[in-house]
Design goal:
The protein is an alpha/beta fold and 384 residues long. Helix content is 43%, strand content 17%.
């Protein structure tokens, strides 16, 4: 039976410390959660500004549901494009400094849709080796030639770009790398794209709402403005709700409306979510205090974790990975923290390269100094 083969593969993953499983929360998203009846202090959410359970968003969603119902009923191109969708797209475009924007159901669908719509056979995609899985899948599905460069290695990327003599060129990169927490050299990437007449597609899932003036994202953080940049950000992390958007020149957005399968062939998100996201966008713009608190927590954590036997990777963002190395040791440390009432996920291959299993510590503006100190104290105890 094929099921026997599947179980054997799962058993092998378990023996390697790679088996994945889910936990069920019975409380709203926050630093303080309850899982299977036990309370935990959590450091593994991407709710960077702590907006996911804010009453302002709940009230906006309730109002949106009362006015617009609970479902869109159809794809955007049929009868599923509502006023709140249109208004949100306009405001998102203005917020990130682009002429137009397009909503997608998820960041994964956005990445698949954009890359597949813009390049194909005869074209070339250039990708950082630590890009998110959705970008890797997108470039494979596009049927374009693929060239992967070493993480952040601009010299190698320049060589690869120079070797591509024909077709469209698309450089794709995370802005903030989700497992390392470091930022892509976007200025250098844009300069290379200008030199070699390439597009630059930036996945800012972990920068939007957190980086730049008013949380406008990684482009604002680096002061970048260019028509050749195509920008994607998710709306379920710092924005606290759900979905994603792509912002670009109008001709690019029009092309996506016609050719991005992840947009054309799926039911639109409920319009009530866009009502909630309009409120979220206002809160992000007014959230300088939240971002300042978050950055202070990052500095506090980094100071507190110095001197541990495990390496705290270089990151200035809310993603603070603690490099363990061995899969089983990462799981063991995660479980030891859990026994102390602290929830931090152990990240293992293939999500990260072999030999780089880690605890992915993520901070939120909803955390307090005392929360961070509790984690610091627990890790120092476990290091003894």
């Amino acid at each position: 039976m094929p099921f026997t083969e599947l179980q054997t593969e799962l058993n092998e993953r378990a023996a390697q410390g790679l088996l994945r499983s889910r936990c069920t929360l019975v409380t709203a998203q926050s630093p303080h959660i309850v899982v299977e009846g036990k309370p935990y202090l959590a450091f593994c959410s991407n709710d960077y500004l702590g907006l996911a359970s804010r009453p302002e968003l709940a009230a906006a969603l309730q109002q949106g549901t009362q006015q617009w119902g609970v479902g869109a009923g159809a794809a955007h191109l049929v009868s599923g494009h509502f006023g709140p969708h249109h208004q949100l797209e306009q405001q998102l475009a203005a917020f990130v400094g682009k002429p137009a924007a397009l909503l997608f159901s998820t960041g994964y669908m956005a990445n698949l849709g954009v890359v597949q719509a813009l390049v194909g056979k005869g074209d070339t995609v250039f990708a950082d080796k630590l890009n998110h899985a959705s970008l890797n899948d997108a470039m494979l599905l596009s049927r374009a030639a693929t060239r992967r460069y070493r993480h952040g290695d601009m010299a190698q990327l320049a060589q690869l770009l120079a070797q591509a003599q024909s077709g469209r060129k698309l450089v794709i990169t995370d802005a903030v790398f989700s497992m390392d927490g470091d930022m892509a050299p976007l200025r250098e990437l844009l300069a290379l794209c200008e030199q070699h007449d390439a597009w630059l597609y930036v996945d800012d899932a972990h920068g939007f709402g957190v980086l730049g003036e008013q949380g406008r994202g990684s482009l604002a953080h680096f002061g970048l403005v260019s028509a050749r940049i195509i920008y994607m950000a998710t709306l379920g992390k710092a924005a606290g709700v759900s979905g994603a958007f792509v912002a670009a020149e109008q001709v690019v957005v029009d092309t996506l409306v016609n050719h991005a399968h992840g947009y054309v062939y799926t039911t639109a998100t409920p319009p009530a979510l866009s009502v909630a996201l309009l409120q979220s966008l206002r809160m992000i713009a007014q959230g300088d205090g939240l971002r300042a608190h978050l950055h202070r927590l990052v500095a506090r954590l980094r100071r507190g974790l110095s001197g541990l036997p495990w390496q705290l990777m270089s990151s200035e963002t809310a993603i603070q990975p603690l490099l363990i190395g061995d899969n089983q040791q990462a799981l063991k440390l995660s479980e030891a923290l859990r026994q102390r009432g602290i929830w931090v996920a152990a990240i293992r291959p293939p999500t990260v390269p072999q030999g780089t299993a880690r605890l992915r510590i993520t901070l939120s503006a909803a955390h307090t100094d005392a929360d961070v100190d509790q984690l610091i104290g627990a890790l120092h105890e476990l290091a003894c």
